[in-house]
Amino acid sequence: MEGSTEGTEPDSHSFSLQPLTPQHTGGDTSTIASPTQTHYDGASVDGTTMRSRSMSRPKLDDDAQPTKSVDDGADDPPEEEERPILDLAQDEHIDAGVFPFKPYKLASLVDPKNMDLLKEMGGMAGLMKGLGTHRKRGLGKKALATTAPASHHGLSDTRADKDGRPGAGAGAGVGASQRHDRDPENAAGDVPKLVLTGPGGEDGGGVPLGESASEIGVDVEDGPTYDANLDERRRVYGVNVLPIRKTKSLLQLMWLALKDKVLVLLSIAAIVSLALGFFQDFGTPRPAGEPPVDWVEGVAIIVAIAIVVMVGSLNDWQKERQFQTLNEKKEERGVKVIRDGVEMVVDIKEVVVGDVALVEPGEIIPCDGIFITGHNVKCDESGATGESDAIKKMSYEDCLKEGTEGGEHGKHTDCFMISGSKVLEGYGSYVVIAVGTRSFNGRIMMALRGDTENTPLQLKLNNLAELIAKLGSAAGLILFVALMIRFFVQLGSHNPQRTPSQWGIAFVQILIIAVTLIVVAVPEGLPLAVTLALAFATKRMTKENLLVRVLGSCETMANASVICTDKTGTLTQNVMTVVAGSVGIHCKFVHRLEENKARTNADEEPGVKGALSQKHAQDFSIDQEHINSTLSPAIQDLLNKAIAVNSTAFEDDDPESGKKVFVGSKTETALLQFAKENGWADYKQTRDSADIVQMIPFSSERKAMGVVVRLSKRHYRVYLKGASEILTKKCSSHIVVERGSKETEVVDTREIDELARDNIQRTIIFYANQTLRTIAICYRDFESWPPPGVQAESEDEVPYEEFCHDLTLIGITGIEDPLRPGVREAVADCHKAGVTVKMCTGDNVLTARSIALQCGIYTAGGIIMEGPIFRQLEKQDLQDVVPRLQVLARSSPEDKQLLVETLRELGEIVGVTGDGTNDGPALKKADVGFSMGIAGTEVAKEASDIILMDDNFASIVKAIMWGRCVNDAVRKFLQFQISTNVTAVIITFVSAVASVQEESVLSAVQLLWINIIMDTFAALALATDPATPALLDRKPDKKTSPLFTVDMYKQIIGQSTYQTIITLIFHFLGLRILGLSSSDKNDTIVQTLVFNLFVFAQIFNSINSRRLDNHLNIFAGITKNYYFMGITLIEVAVQVLIVFVGGAAFQVTRIGGREWGIGLALGFVSIPLGALIRLIPNAPVERFFIKIRLLPNPDVLPTTRPDTEWNTAIQLVRDNLSTFSHVRGGRMRASSYVGKSRSVHLAPESRVALPSIMTMVPTLIASSIGARWAPQSPSGLSHPASFDPSKSSAALWEGKIQIHPDTKPDDPVMQRWGAVARTN
């Protein structure tokens, strides 16, 4: 249990802080990110975040520029950014001057926490001497004399002078963990100097008891390190800033957009089309009355390109501005340090290695360091490492005495201060060992900088653009050759008769028609469709609390096959909460009972499912919401006072959200929140009205805390709370809560007999097995204080042991970090959509398993593994285990990165969610990174592509849905566009070859309307279909899956064939079909009809293209898409307008009702034709497409060799059998089994011991179970979960790998890992 001491009571230490005046914030060049200003009696316990956007690395400002040197902190070699893992080889190029320790060696003390290295350095004495600083007085006069930073000078705060406590400094406790360059003009005089202590400092970390000054080198100034000034320290160890990178300007974004392959192809087409258009219009004689409009097509293509570039780049630019707005809350931050024995507040960027810094509750630690001394300091490192339990900080010497080594042995105690972590309670000091880019937080930030990769859809569209360019060029070349052959034949036969200039113009005409064919083949609307679909989706997603920072990540999310999620703060709320408990011994309450029925043990005896009789028949379950209707007012009052009075936590405004939150230890805040949720009397009124006689602070020895209150002159009461397994043994009675006890006005108590004792123990173990932190709440009444017979110096100094017995148990509460609302459903939706969810957490394996079971991540066939064992696996084992890995506990940032890399190597599209600094590298490495907008650290936001503004994991399902909507929109458009282009290319080719004048069936301006305007309209129409939950009913596509599906190919081929046939029939036989004579007017009527039916075929085909599958209802959801309906009506209206008033420009004429009817009817045929095509079975068509290589053959993709086993241990056994073939002669050599073993290559030796013979164990177990053998349940309470080992943790954790208990014995995962796994 966590607790607080009396020193943290707000009433006894009530003071306020004077915030520093923010300097130079709010603009684009705002550089200093500082989260919440926190202090002790007005603080937020919630995490605070750094907020800055880094895109490039300019030079540091002059005031922050260290002395030029090869080891300059701001000018480090580029590889530093590439290697977040500490590489000590980087120290080789650094001149450490007088210092014995180089920067990366110091930084490696905390990553990972390394007590052995600290011992090698000579412990704290050696470290302090090596850094030239003092535990008590910090940097000495010599270090400060040469160069005093400008920010040290300023007015002193007289109010602070009068208050000597560490929390009274201006700006102290303002949370942020890194600095960025600031305007040098505003740097000077920002932060006032505060003289808070007397000679030597009041609290600055005195010499620990039992040590002399000479032993720790406090007062010894012998050595060159003590003379090193601040500039020298910055030269060697760097400055406490991160180089910022400028965001890309709008012009830069536009230039990047123009580099798209499809747009490059379009640009070439536009230039050629424009040049030829000008030549046709102004370089050749035109027939009378024909307007010069051939140049319009080239201009139209340029307009299309401009629209695409502007929409795409403006969207990116706008999202970047939104991201900056999100991170606008920036203010200056001061850090409290001791220099020459004087406490002072300095600007965070002035902190140097060797400074002794002070910590207080609510502060975000700005630099890495080693704890010197302090009082009850506890840090929340969940934001940095994922560890959800508070880490107690002790001095190096105390850690040695305790025998802890960096918290690795589960005691949650160490002496390492990690940048980015948060101080929960206590006061203390630490020596700074790493700043800026060398600190834990800084290295992760630098590692996140890199260029974004192309999304899977972009890659496929680029390939499509190349293919279209090749096919279009080939078609144009074939047409050019065909027409040139005819041209030379005509030239040789002088038929028709032409002048030399006419022959020249005829040649140019051939060139124009060939180029026109290539231009027609290019899908101009495609990039616009992609951009519009993304822009539309991101706008809608913003309304759904999803801020898309990287536009392409939206469509990448469509086919995400794996989501690797953090636990703390992502799946869970990162707020400890009472989720279950018992009042008395019979009333078992559960938070949201319907969803968490497994949280109560009131219904059945463990191991006796379905038993007719129950041992504890009086037990009953209630939902926490009904607790007030079950408990009597007297019991409610008793429990509320036991919680409120016996607590030092308090309520304050959260600066981030403005909401009231409880501040204090996680356990106390959970209990106070529980009382508040139940609507009981206000904690402060209850606490203030209590007459407190004695306080018993929490200590780790007694694992309890208490308070004695005077109820009346002859009535005193002790309230106690603490570890349930200890306090319940000191209870002799319990309060009585039964069904119907609501009516009683007094609190009844009953002796704890053997049955009741068994019930209490069973409840405690039941909660412990669910990894709940169990807290017992008790009381005892006395007639006098001190109690009779007790010798005490005063009434507030009665020994704890004298009254901590014969207690009355009020209840037991189970506390945990609960799931976020909607997480269970979101995980189920992910599974339904074919997306695997994997949990990566720095937390312990039992907590991770409990949360994974609750939210449905841990399922049959799944593996739980710990980071230390995971990172040691050989590559082959890694690739074997990763597909089945569902929970990775105790994982480091490198483990998460390794998991993401392995998944991507296996061809998965990976999404990663996280809110902490430790999630940064994996977020950056993933295809799509999600960060939390409220609780997320700056590192997480910097690395992410999409920010979940409401911190809700469930929003990821919406991202998947909208991503699929974007992908579908692009495919719908492709299906429509390619049909149009194929038809246009074929009819242009055929009609040009058949025409003596090399004229196409459609004029250039008609092609313009069809090929540009209509395609652009169609892009807008098809890109705006809203996302629906039905999109989650299918599996994601693999990266290798083709862009065109079988259904799309069927529609493209079917529709383009139909459109080509009817167009060519009416082009060549139109006069005969309509019964018209040959004349210029009738030829124009036929050409108008052909134009009309072609356009209406496209309009109706756009409706048909709304579906990509074999379902027939193409009108589903059409009424919700107003864009589609409006655009379709506009297309029809404009087409009618063109026919009536288009005249010479479009080479059309007004036509009669018969021709309108034929055009509309033949166009409408596209819809029933689409339905017929959908009825054609896919399987035979797919086989045909594979045969003609239109689709890739899935059977020829790289697969595992059929003659190898998945289990490498069995391969080893088989290979070793070859020995016997040489020993036992020909008979053994003739064995087919041995023959096979020779063909199996020896697998590389894994660093994880996998004894070959153990691979037989799962088979033996399986055969035994088949013979009806079952494990016997041990008697007693050690295994209350009985036959369900997945719910038992009595033996805690003995193995390193765990396989889900429902996994079948013949599952390959059991054969491979069963030998080293525990299925508990």
Automatic annotation (TrEMBL):
Residues 13-39, 46-55 have a biased composition (Polar residues). PROSITE patterns: ATPASE_E1_E2 (PS00154). One of its GO terms (cellular component) is plasma membrane. It is found in: Membrane; Vacuole membrane. Residues 154-165 have a biased composition (Basic and acidic residues). It is a multi-pass membrane protein. Residues 72-82 have a biased composition (Acidic residues). GO terms for biological process: intracellular calcium ion homeostasis. CDD domains: P-type_ATPase_Ca_PMCA-like. The keyword Ribosomal protein does not apply. It comes from Lentinus tigrinus ALCF2SS1-6. Belongs to the cation transport ATPase (P-type) (TC 3.A.3) family. GO terms for molecular function: ATP binding; ATP hydrolysis activity; metal ion binding; P-type calcium transporter activity. Keywords: ATP-binding, Calcium, Calcium transport, Ion transport, Magnesium, Membrane, Metal-binding, Nucleotide-binding, Translocase, Transmembrane, Transmembrane helix, Transport, Vacuole. Residues 198-208 have a biased composition (Gly residues). Its EC number is 7.2.2.10. SMART domains: Cation_ATPase_N. Residues 1-82, 143-220 are annotated as: Disordered. This is Calcium-transporting ATPase. Catalyzes the hydrolysis of ATP coupled with the transport of calcium.
